[in-house]
Design brief:
single chain; 229 residues; alpha/beta; Ribulose 1,5 Bisphosphate Carboxylase/Oxygenase; Rossmann fold; 2 domains; 4-stranded antiparallel β-sheet; 8 helices; globular
């Protein structure tokens, strides 16, 4: 059953023509009628069905305006790196002791960073970390010896771009409380990242097929992509 608030939202936005991100953000914000600071979300459909291979995107992007969310970061590293990790803002820091806690199911964090030397031990916990998307990955900058930089990136608004088997990428790129300018900066950074990914792929046609924008409790609109990606 639809709530009174939902019934007041625009209907049949799916039949409207695609609009620019700069025009859509004010509309999306106007639809944010809840009492909390709603997230502004993107749904991106990539052209992953190719004749010779399936396209899989998995990379990290640092949003210049952040995400508006607090990310709890854990670090597994040798003791000599613990001080730098804590100074950079890591919430949980440890070595073998933290690995043992993770083994026992203690996953009180949202992002896990691991030093190169400790990854051999941590990789044995793939069955625990993998299904939750917490396994560190060199491509995402979460397996590194520059622990300080990795922690700062995670805290500042680094997000992961990863498509599912149907080619969908879902992500939040800010909050209603963000200025339009900051949301546009984040949006353009995401598209620039996908454009760079395309240059590393063998793909026929555009990488991005469709982009939709919505808010946590709002309705979606199709975004007009200004350039070929």
């Amino acid at each position: 059953m639809k709530s009174k608030r939902f019934k007041k939202l625009p209907e049949k936005t799916n039949i409207e023509k695609p609009n620019s991100i700069s025009n859509l953000i004010p509309i999306i914000k106007k639809n944010c009628t809840t009492k909390f600071d709603e997230s502004i979300d993107l749904s991106i459909l990539i052209n992953n069905k190719q004749k010779k291979n399936e396209i899989n995107i998995r990379t990290a992007v640092n949003l210049p305006s952040g995400t508006g969310k607090k990310t709890k970061v854990a670090v597994v590293a040798e003791e000599s790196k613990h001080k730098d990790a804590k100074a950079s803002g890591a919430d949980l820091v440890g070595g073998d002791d933290l690995i043992e806690k993770i083994k026992n199911g203690e996953l009180d964090f949202e992002k896990l960073i691991c030093s190169t030397s400790m990854m051999v031990k941590l990789s044995k916990l793939g069955k625990i970390l993998g299904p939750k998307g917490l396994m560190p990955n060199p491509k995402l900058g979460t397996v590194t010896d520059n622990i300080s930089e990795a922690v700062k990136n995670a805290k500042a608004g680094q997000i992961e771009l990863k498509n599912d088997k149907d080619g969908n990428i879902g992500l939040s790129f800010g909050k209603k409380s963000f200025s339009d300018e900051n949301l546009i900066k984040n949006f353009n950074t995401i598209l620039d990242t996908l454009e760079k990914e395309k240059s590393n792929l063998t793909i026929k046609g555009d990488l991005v097929r469709n982009v939709f924008i919505t808010s946590t409790m709002g309705v979606s609109y199709k975004v007009k992509i200004e350039k070929s990606i």
